[in-house]
Amino acid sequence: MVTRRRVLGAGLAATGVGFTGAALLPALKARGAASAPTPRAQAAAATVELYRVPMPKVPVLAPVSTAGGTDTYEVTMRTARKEIFPGLQTELRTFDGHFPGPTIKARRGRPVVIRQRNTLDVHTSVHLHGAALPQSEDGAPMDTIAPGAERLYTYPNKQPHASLWYHDHAHHLESENVYRGLHGSYLLTDDEEEALPLPKGEHDVLIGIRDAHFDATGALVYQMGDRARSTLLVNGAPYPYFEVDARSYRLRLANCSNQRILQLRLEDDGDMVQIGSDGGLLKHPSTVKSLYLSSGERADVVIDFSRYPVGTKLVLKNTFGNAEAGQVMRFDVVRTAEDESSVPSRLRALPPLPKPTAERTVVLRMDEGAHPDPKAYLDEKVYDHHRIDQRVRFGASEIWTVTNANGRIPHNFHLHLVQFRVLERNGKAPAPGERGLKDTVLLLPGETVKLQATFDTYQGEYVYHCHMLDHSAMGMMATMKIA
Fold first, then answer.
1. Residue-range domain boundaries for the chain
2. Residues with Cβ < 8 Å from 427, sequence gap 6 or more?
3. From CA 262, how far away is CA 142, in angstroms rounded?
4. DSSP SS3 for 291
5. CATH C-level class of 53-193
6. What is the DSSP string of 407-472?
7. 3-state helix, strand, coil in the chain (%, to 5)
8. Rounded to whole angstroms, what are the CA distances from 405 to 8, 364, 399?
């Protein structure tokens, strides 16, 4: 079946936009941006050998204290050098020297406190993406940690289970800071999730995917809207292989790219069972052949590798846009194994949506074509942290209709503080994978998405924005005040 998105994806590829829409952006001289990439600089990504290195397993951070029912962590943001390409060293901005940042495992009802020390030479702000937090803990774009300073973030973890992630959010710097390595995963669980017979332990695996542009020395090249981010990394490694047992795995997929849109598909068109989205498990599993993830989106899938004989080598492909980054990683089935896991037909209960109390519209747009100083707009305004753009009554449940007004550039939409429910996409019911709790949603050119969010957790000022971080850094962000 030819879907709407498949047709649009092919159209974008044909026009040279690829995954990011960056082909439409002039070379912007953002703060700290590198010079324009040279043909020699682009050669390193083009010659990387596929499936040469094993997929790293992201380390789980251990708390320094568990006293008083609170898990306390200490993290240092620092520069580190890592061997991403064999034999080459890459300088990165990291959490505790790890690329990507270490995973934090949390439990509903058990607070987490993290002391973040900034030893970098740039300001930072750590945002726990998808979390319901007081304004003081949200990691707002202007609430930054200066070089040499530190601060405590306290996460109450009152919301249900979800595969969250954390990343830098310092305005005008967020794009480069995240690109250079300031991102990691935060896995929140609860009794409801743990009671299910889903794959667990070593068969519950985090897979963070992002793109990058390396020069011939292995150095990361950063430039706003760079079209040459054509090397895909999985858990920080280029095109790795992952040895799996012939049994079911839960794969927690996350798109940690600045702009790239992914359409993930097994090369044999085999089934994947989607069980979760940004805000945790879906009500019911959904069998899919492919899965879309825009920047910042997450999805949990179960893949049953027992249907393949030992010795099978199965490639996970990216089929959105051009073929330059069409390979992602390879699964190598290496042994038989017992498997007592299963995917229930009902995964969780989601409460019915309350009657909406208000409706709003939001329009995303950025300058297309030749502009000497292109800008990105939300409701035709560039972000100003002094301005309140929307006032929301505390406890309200609102319908927001979000439109991508561009003709060629994709965007997505992220609300801080709340998980929302997608009601419609282009006037039609959302696909099964978008019917759970979401905090980020994709909008291809000309698309409109209607969503409903309930603002009943915390009061204060929070941002909402395009989570293609090059776009938000250019101004596609606004502030809502909940009171």
1. 4-28+197-336, 53-193, 358-482
2. 448
3. 30
4. strand
5. mainly beta
6. SS--EEEEESS--EEEEEETTBPPPGGGSS-BSEEEE-TT-EEEEEEE--S--EEEEEE-SSHHHH
7. 10, 40, 45
8. 15, 6, 19
Beta-sheet pairing, 162-168 with 420-425: unpaired
pLDDT tens-digit readout, 189-234: 999 999 999 999 999 999 999 999 999 999 999 999 898 898 999 9
Q: How far apart are the first and last CA of the chain?
A: 47
- Please give the backbone phi and psi of residue 8, each rounded to the nearest 5 degrees, phi first: -65, -40
Q: How crowded is residue 204: how many other Cβ atoms within 10 Å of its Cβ?
A: 16
Residue 447 corresponds to which tokens in the numbers above? 């698309």
Q: Which amino acid is at 417?
A: L
Q: Which fold has domain 358-482?
A: Immunoglobulin-like (2.60.40)
Give the pair of three-digit tokens for residue 201: 């332990």
324: pLDDT confidence band, cut at 50, 70 and 90?
Answer: low
Taking residue 358's Cβ as centre, other Cβ atoms within 10 Å add up to 12
Q: Quick one: pLDDT at residue 39?
A: 39
pLDDT of residue 322: 64
**What is the tens place of the pLDDT at every residue in 10-44?**
333 322 333 233 322 322 233 233 333 333 334 44
What is the C-alpha separation between 36 and 28, in angstroms, rounded?
9
DSSP string, 370-406: S-SS--EEETTB---TT---EEE-TT-EEEEEEEE--
Instruction: Return all residues near 414 (Cβ < 8 A) that are at least 6 apart.
Output: 129, 296, 439, 440, 464, 465, 466, 467
Q: List, in order, residues 6 or more apart from 23 with CB less than 8 Å away.
A: 15, 16, 17, 227
Length of the chain: 483
Structure tokens at 424: 């419609």
The beta strand positions in 43-138, using DSSP E, are 71-82, 90-95, 101-107, 112-118, 126-129
Q: Do 411 and 443 touch, CB atoms closer than 8 A?
A: yes
Residues 6+ apart with CB under 8 A from 72: 63, 64, 65, 66, 112, 113, 114, 115
The secondary element (H helix, E strand) that includes residue 42 is helix 39-46
Do residues 151 and 109 lie in contact, with contact meaning Cβ atoms separated by under 8 Å? no
Give yes or no for a contact between 262 and 320, defined as CB atoms under 8 angstroms apart: yes
CA–CA separation, 121 vs 124, rounded Å?
9
- Two tokens at 402? 């979000």
- Spatial separation of the C-alpha atoms in residues 33 and 25, rounded to whole Å: 15
Joined together, the tokens standing for residue 482 give 């909940």
Fill in the DSSP letter of residue 141.
T
Q: Is the CATH number 3.20.20.140 carried by domain 4-28+197-336?
A: no
**By C-alpha distance, which of 296, 209, 207, 197 is closest to 247?**
197
